[in-house]
Amino acid sequence: MADADLDVVIRQLAKQQYKGLMAAAKKRRDRYAGLAAKAKNGEAKAKLKLIAKNTMEQAAAAARRLQISADNAADSYARSMRNAAEAPPPAKKPVAKPVKKATRKKAKA
């Protein structure tokens, strides 16, 4: 990855985070679905199913925001690198040499 462009790296990291977030959300959803299956009354079952559904909706929204943010950052980086490559090099200013002051030797009387 030493020669890889950073925009590609940004997208890869976001993809990994997306997968991790969705895996954790599915695990939590399955936990609530399992609790709903074991619930004794209908009210608790409905409540746990709703929690499971909301967990996935919220996680999907967070993952989508994460992906959009990473895409924006990667696009911005790629665009700035393209602009920097196309821009003409800055003109060098001539370096002024420091002027040495003449020193006077004191005449011995």
Account of the 3D structure:
- This protein has one domain (6-83).
- It is rod-shaped, with a radius of gyration of 32 Å.
- It is built from two helices and no strands.
- 72% of the residues lie in helices and 0% in strands.
- It has 109 residues and is an all-alpha fold.
Compressed to H and E, one letter per element, the order equals HH
Q: Per the principal axes of the C-alpha atoms, what is the gross shape?
A: rod-shaped
Query: Total domains, how many?
Result: 1
Instruction: Work out the helix count.
Output: 2
The helix content is: over 70%
**N-C termini distance:** 77 Å
Structural class: mainly alpha
Biggest sheet layout: none
On the 0-100 scale, what is the average pLDDT? 87
| Uncertain residue ranges | none
Q: Oligomeric form of this entry?
A: single chain
| Radius of gyration using CA atoms only | 32 Å
